[in-house]
Amino acid sequence: MKRLYRTSLAILLAASLGACEKKVVDLDPIDQIPTDRAIRTVANVNTAVNGVYGTYQYRRNVYVNAFISDELRLGTGTEYRNVGNILFNWQHVSDSQDWRDGETGGIWTNRYAVIDRANRILELIDGIPANTPAEEALKSQYKGELLAMRAIAHFDLLNYFSATLAYDPTALGIVVQAESAKSPSSYQPARVNQQEAINLINADLVQAKTLIPATFTNASRITRNAVSAMQAKVALYTRNWGAVAGFADEVINSQPLATISAYPSLWSTKSLPENQSTEVIWKYNVNAANSGFNIGGLFQDGNGAVQASPSQKLLNTYNQEDDVRFTTFFLTAPRNLIAKYGVVTGTISDNFQYDIKILRTSELVLAKAEALAELNDLDGANDALASLRSNRIADYEHTDITDKAALIDAILEERYKELVYEGHRYLDLRRRSLPITRLLEDAGGNPQSTTLATNNTKYILPIPQQEKFANPNMQQNAGY
Question: Which one-letter DSSP state was computed for residue 78?
Answer without folding.
Answer: T
